[in-house]
Every structure is written in structure tokens, then in C-alpha cells.
Amino acid sequence: MPIQLAHEEGDEPFHHDHRLKDDEHQPNTFIRLLNSVRCYNIPVLNFVILLILGIFLIKLTTKYTNLYMKNSLITIITTNLVLYGISETLAQSILCYRSDQPMIAYRLNESDGVGNGAIVLNSGVIDDLEEGNVLDDDAVDVVIPLSFFQFNRLAGFMCWGFIMGFCQCWWYKFLQIYSQDPKFIEVVRKVMTDQFLYSPVSLFCFFTYGTIVLEDKTWDDAKIKLKKIYIPTLFINYSVWFPVQFFNFLVIPRSFQVPFSSSISVLWNCYLSMRNSTN
């Protein structure tokens, strides 16, 4: 995190930044302009994208039955694309949210020319630093870093939804092998098979995909992330999806089971996206 120190008014500040400067990672003027209007530090662009995807989802929902009868695979894939897009946009919005920021604001550049995540120290603080004293909160002004909507993450997450559409369509057909059992036994077997076979594999693949594709990192990075968060996330997955899938297989008609689970996945995938990006 960069730190800017100023001794007296008019003096050149000493600026320390342990991060490597990389202009290529700085968004261009057009992207900054798109993200300039903000609500509690969330770019209004995020809300526009959510609105567009929401309208498309409503139209898709009203025609879902007819589309499913014509081509179930294409319908499931299209639904997944929209739902996964909503999940990623929600995740980016939540990560941007700052309650201490104005409800409506216009920010094109960082405040006072200070870099991302800078800490500005007020006058007279340097002596305290040199003496090893702990700084009061009033001595430090934190400049909220600008965050920008990442279209590459949106595209990558929707691509993952596209892939999962194929997997879900095949998997739910596979689970019909239990359809000859008594209803309750059928549901229990479907839930157990789904949670102990499908969920661990899909979660493993997601964190691997998220690290290597969405974050452009290496397999070694993926292994570190998996070691750190895979097992805890899997247990959280069980606490959420056991009851959801039990209800799904017990109550929801077969043609709506995939979209039902995908709809619940909006919040779950939002959580996974934040889990992936913050680790």
C-alpha cells in the first residue's frame, strides 16, 4: 500500500510504494468514464448491467416452457449464461460497496492524485513514526481506491456458466436412473449422489478455472488456493445444497429442476466469485 508523507506545507512529499508500477494494468480513460458515476463507491454501470440481464431473464422466464420443449440444452445454457452473469455482477458490486462513501458521487481519478489504496499522513506524524509511536486514527486519511467493472471476469464467469450448462443437462439426465425407486428413496439417492459426486468435482474445477482463467495465474497458485479454501467451502456447500436439492428433487417438476438449482446458484455463485477473488 502506498504511503505519502508530508513534513510541512509546500514541501515535496515523500512517496513510498512497495508495489511495482505497471501502467498496462491501469484502466484507460474510456473505462474510467464508464465507471465514474458511483453509488456508495459501486459504479452505476454495475446497476445498468444488472438491469439489462434482469430484463433478459424475465423475458426468458416467460417463454421458458416453450423453449425447453423445443431444445432443452440450448434453453439451459442460455439461462445459465444470464444467471451466471448476474452472479458475477453482484459479486463485483458487493466487493466495491463502501457505506462511508456518498450515495451519489462522480470520481474519474483517485483523490488528490494519490494512487490506489493510498494512506496520506497528516503534518507532524513523521516524528511519531520515527519514535515508534502508534498513530491515532485522526492522523491517517485513507483514500478509497477506485475499482472498475471487470468485463473480462464477467465474460469468464458466463463462459463457466456455459460449460456448466452442458454438465448440468447431462447430470440431471443421469440422476434419472433412480426414477424407478419409491419417491422418497429416489430423492435421497439423487441428493446423496449429487452432493458426494457432482459437488466436490464441480467445486474443485471452479476454483481451478477461477485461478488459472479468470485471474491468469498458474497451476501452483491454484493448488495453494485449493489447499486453503476448498474443504471449508465444500462444507458450506453441503450446508446449503443438501436442503435445496432435497426440495428440488422432491417438489420441483423435472423440466424445472435445472433452472431452479441455477436460480439458487445466483447467490451461491456470487459467494463463490467473491471467495475466489478475495483469496
TrEMBL record:
It is found in: Membrane. Belongs to the peroxisomal membrane protein PXMP2/4 family. It comes from Candida viswanathii. PANTHER family: PEROXISOMAL MEMBRANE PROTEIN 2, PXMP2 MPV17 (PTHR11266), VACUOLAR MEMBRANE PROTEIN YOR292C (PTHR11266:SF50). This is Vacuolar membrane protein. It comes from the Eukaryota. The chain crosses the membrane at residues 40-61, 73-95, 154-175, 196-214, 229-252. It is a multi-pass membrane protein. One of its GO terms (cellular component) is mitochondrion. Pfam families: Mpv17_PMP22 (PF04117). Keywords: Membrane, Transmembrane, Transmembrane helix. The lineage of its organism: Eukaryota, Fungi, Dikarya, Ascomycota, Saccharomycotina.
